[in-house]
Amino acid sequence: MVEDIDSWDYFLSFIPQQEQIGEEEKQELLRNWGHLRKVFGEDWFKKEENRIHPLRFIFHNHAPWCLRTISELGIGIESLKKKENFGEILKRIITMNTYEGFEGAYHEFWVGYDLFKLGVPFEYLKQHKKQKTSDIIVNVGERKIFLEVTKKNNPDDPLNSYQNSQKISWFLWSKGALADDFVFYFTILKPLSTPRAEQILHICEEMLEKAKKSGFEEHHMSNVIDMYITKKENSDKVPKEKRIMQWKTPDFNELNRIKGTIKEKAAQLETGNPAILIIFDAHLWIQYSTDPLYSNLEEDLREYVNQYTNLSAVVIEIEMTSGHEEPFIKEDERYIVVKGCDKDLLRSKNKIIILNEFADYPLSSEEKELLKKM
Asked: Is there a contact between 249 and 157 (Cβ–Cβ < 8 Å)?
């Protein structure tokens, strides 16, 4: 075992040990991690500012989906590194140690990489400090389409609570991926402070060790959390209504925040060409979780989108961790809903495309098909 835990060799050493990944894929992962190692630099893990980098958690999680996520980032960067103006995005991915700063660059990368894999010609646009321009220009047939990519930042009040709940979720997801015979359930009943989350993580570790011997463990903290760690054959001991993983965050109006983003970004987009705003949002699925087709979301936003005629469409990517969504597409003249997931990366592919009925440049059928595939 590599002793230096702040080295690439340490993290790479977990790939050959992963029993759920075949030998051929392991070699592919090692190659792609090597691409990332080259561009990040040998001392990336040792730099003090990178100890809180958002990617750090994924590196420390040795579950197959995390190893694959890093691999996908590596091959994606290798594929795009010669693209004009990509260097600035890469720099932000490597150096931004806040979620807000990192995720903006990360999503611009992902949109470009999706286009690359689809074989669609595109370019990243150079950004100017004094005047914001679109992020990407795409060539579809004879038309140029401008894309503005944005990540909806966490609202201030729920930010810590959301991240603290995510720590518990990620911890249990990773342990579930490493231990095929165990299942994990929890219900967080109120927003968590950071000290409370740390306390619960410690309890989770203790429960897991006990469950390895007993086969079933549960923990209840009154009005805070209910947790269950059990071998699969004992899962019927968990009440049916508790066989979930969910948490509570402070109330906030995500719809109004989305409207504010549409207004702000529409003012920045070029006129004279089709323009599409792509918004990544990790909170809307909570507000619209009882609406499996997101039709209520379309209803709430349709007329608001229509008033910005320079927008051909608004695409809202509903971000969530998921490995179980069945592929599904529903469309009419007003909107398109795409549901599904990448089971290898536990990455949801849920999105709603709101088409502007009064757009200066309505999207063609070919352009709509591209948005569905991205």
From this structure: no
Across the range 237-245, mean pLDDT stands at 88
Q: Are strands 328-331 and 335-339 parallel, antiparallel or unpaired?
A: antiparallel
Residues 347, 106: Cα–Cα separation, whole Å: 14
β-strands 182-188, 245-246 pairing: parallel
Buried b (16+ CB within 10 A) or exposed e, 279-295: bbbbbbbbbbeeeeebb
Determine the Cα–Cα distance for residues 198 and 221; give it in Å rounded to an integer: 14
3-state DSSP call for residue 281? strand
190 Cα distance to chain centroid = 24
CB atoms within 10 A of CB 320: 18
User: How far is CA 205 from its chain centroid?
Assistant: 26
Helix orientation angle between 86-95 and 23-40, rounded to the nearest 10 degrees: 100
62 three-state secondary structure: coil
Distance CA 79, CA 93 (A): 15
Tokens standing for residue 244: 């979930």
Return phi, psi of residue 313, to 5°: -165, 155
Q: What is the pTM of this model?
A: 0.76
Q: How many CB atoms lie within 10 A of CB 339?
A: 20
Q: Return the minimum-mean-pLDDT range out of 114-118, 168-172, 256-260, 365-369.
A: 168-172
Local confidence band at 288 (pLDDT 50, 70, 90 cut-offs): low
Can you point out the beta strands (E) in the chain? 122-124, 136-140, 143-151, 182-188, 216-221, 225-231, 245-246, 275-281, 313-318, 328-331, 335-339, 341-342, 347-348, 350-355
**Could you tell me the residue ranges of all domains in the chain?**
8-81, 107-155+252-373, 156-246
- Give the helix ranges, DSSP H, for 96-219: 99-118, 156-178, 194-214
Q: In DSSP terms, which residues pair with 315 in a beta bridge? A: 278, 353
What's the pLDDT score for residue 177?
Answer: 42
326 vs 196: which has the higher pLDDT: 196
Write the CB contacts of 296 (distance below 8 Å, at least 6 apart in sequence): 288
Is residue 157 predicted with pLDDT exceeding 60?
A: no
